[in-house]
Design a protein that fits this description.
Length: 372
Amino acid sequence: MGIFARISNRVLFVVNAVVVAAFLLACLNPYISPENWPLFALISLAFPFLAVLVIAFLVWWLFAFRKWALLSAIALILGSGQIFNFFAVSLNSSFEEQPKEKVLRVATWNVARFIEMVKNNNMGSQTRYKMLKQIGRANADILCFQEFSSSISPDWYNNIVAVGKGLKYPYHYFSHDVDGDKLFNGSVIFSRFPIVDTGMVRFPRPSLPDALVFADINVDGKLVRVHTAHLQSNQFRKEDRSKIEELKDGKGNWINNAGRILSKLSVAIRYRSIQADVVKTVISSSPNPVIFCGDLNDVPNSYTYRTIKGDMSDAFLRKGFGIGRTYTSLSPTLRIDYIFADHHFEIQQCKRITTRYSDHYMVVADLKLANR
């Protein structure tokens, strides 16, 4: 091996070591609360790319200098838990549309206010109609929607009626205050089974005015508590998305653009960590078997995900395959919508419905109460 090749390999090994260090930090990220260190938590967004780089270095060294492949191999072994949180490897990821007997079908979807709120016949209203048709085809027993809107004004869409009466969901819980406003937004639970009790916990301000809502549902004589929530979003506006595209293309004022985006990300991450602690406390106090459905606005390699999931099972990890992207913008690696179920349930199947009506995909899972 010539001197140039030896120097090149050593430089490459140093780069490999830096990538491995960043990868291992990303693996530790879910265990560190970002409330005081929000910028550190941003490394979770880079996790899939770091994992690919570590694998690439492993393959390179196996052919170029086998002994140095050990560094990447050890890193992958240490980070295997987080890799399998990110990438589902179920060997049976098919989905039977007809639910089996004694199975509870649950669906969660950030419906983005059904795109259009005012009654008309524009493209937004046509998309809303398609979304309602999709909800009907999903044939779920329980629906959890985030960024749901409904109005009592005759000029605006009443989506409570559209889903409740139109799609035959006789029970729902949608907490809102009637204070003169005729348009209501938030998270909602619809059910074909009777709802016997409900509750709501507001997240502390200055986070967005969202809430964790839950309902005790009588499923064939057994009470099940279903929670849903929409956690703090990054609040990216049109101009922010434009700046992100400029960063991707290497254009614009890199320092100003990056600073603005990082600032918004760090604020949202810190608020989500506080909200995640609230959700964990509420879920742990449930006297009934627990299902959580929601838009966490955070990836599987995050403090938010780990805190809320706890010992529950992630339906997609159990019965899905691949990354399972649920957010249609920014990056193909963003799985931020989830269905979790505690040990009282067996997860039988799970799928995403990848229509681009909302900026999120619907997630559907079949659950069965275990004989315990």
